[in-house]
Amino acid sequence: MRLYKKIDSTLRGQPAAELAAQLGALAAxxxxxxxxxxxxxxxxxxxxxxxxxxxxxxxxxxxDTPLWARDHSYPSACLPEVLGGAGLAxxxxxxxxxxxxxxxxxxxxxEALGRGVDAVVCDAAAEADLSTIAAASLLxxxxxxxxxxxxxxxxxxxxxxxxxxxxxxxxxxxxxxTVVGSLAEVSRAQARALVEGLRVRHLPVxxxxxxxxxxxxxxxxAAAFLAEALAGGRDVLLEMAMxxxxxxxxxxxxxxxxxxLVQTVGDRVGALVLTGGETACALxxxxxxxxxxxxxxxxxxxxxxxxxxxxxxxxxxKAGAFGDGDTLLRCLRRLKEEL
Length: 339
Prior knowledge:
It is a single chain. By secondary structure, the chain is of the alpha/beta class. It contains 13 helices and 15 strands. The protein has two domains: 4-159, Putative sugar-binding, N-terminal domain (Rossmann fold); 175-336, Molybdenum Cofactor Biosythetic Enzyme, Chain A, CATH 3.40.980.20. Helix content is 40%, strand content 22%. A seven-stranded mixed sheet has the order 10-11-9-12-15-14-13, with helices on both faces. It has a five-stranded parallel sheet with strand order 1-8-2-7-6. Strand 13 (291-299) and strand 14 form a beta hairpin. The longest helix has 16 residues, at 15-30. It is elongated. The two termini are 40 Å apart. The model has no long low-confidence stretch (mean pLDDT 91).
């Protein structure tokens, strides 16, 4: 069994506390020392790298980005310090060692394991660096991988079949509904590109409307707009409107309300594009979706799949901060190719 702990590339949530608990459980289950945690959150294809044990996003230290200002729970993004705060002994395998090759990285990992280090934080600035880290760690007797989709892809490339089967999507019947619930600036720019390109009917819904609920006139007007546009075969962008000072604590509640609005027209949607993890989880849950069969990757970090559940339709999911200004346009074009 190989165990991979998926974490957010910008350290949202509580990855250190979760990892400490995970290592403790593995040690207890195995009756001996826990495996070495190989920590490599870099995702170079989306501009996230690790240098000197610190997360860097598009050339800027994570602590200096809007992502950190909006959603963080650690004093810094220095990974050895983050892990140390959860009681884990951690040290960095610097980029120069990674560039020295698989043997050098493996030797450093084995030496750390022999000294009782809990976790090694691996610098990575390119896909090739993650491939080196993956190859070296696979040679260890025991390891627990901790990373984003970047390290996962590197491991899969080494361990997976050389030519895996590629499922296909059935023809899309109906309009595409794009839902933007993320507050990330990147997602808002992507939404503007959709609107400015005149590719969609635009429905911005203020948080006040979502809080008012289904009995409010403004809610009913939004639901009627959605139903009419989708029934007419028009692609729609449903966007939770930004406010000057958003209440981050109400994010899950607003995501649930946004999902409830979409639930009223679920049977008229031909395909979905969902931006923001809370938004995607809430909306798919409301529609009774219990899984996604992966089909393709439109671009790094933007998977395309087929929903599993009462509805079987194409779905694209995207983290709020992923992609460039035209990512949602490319998602729409890719889905329209399936018509």
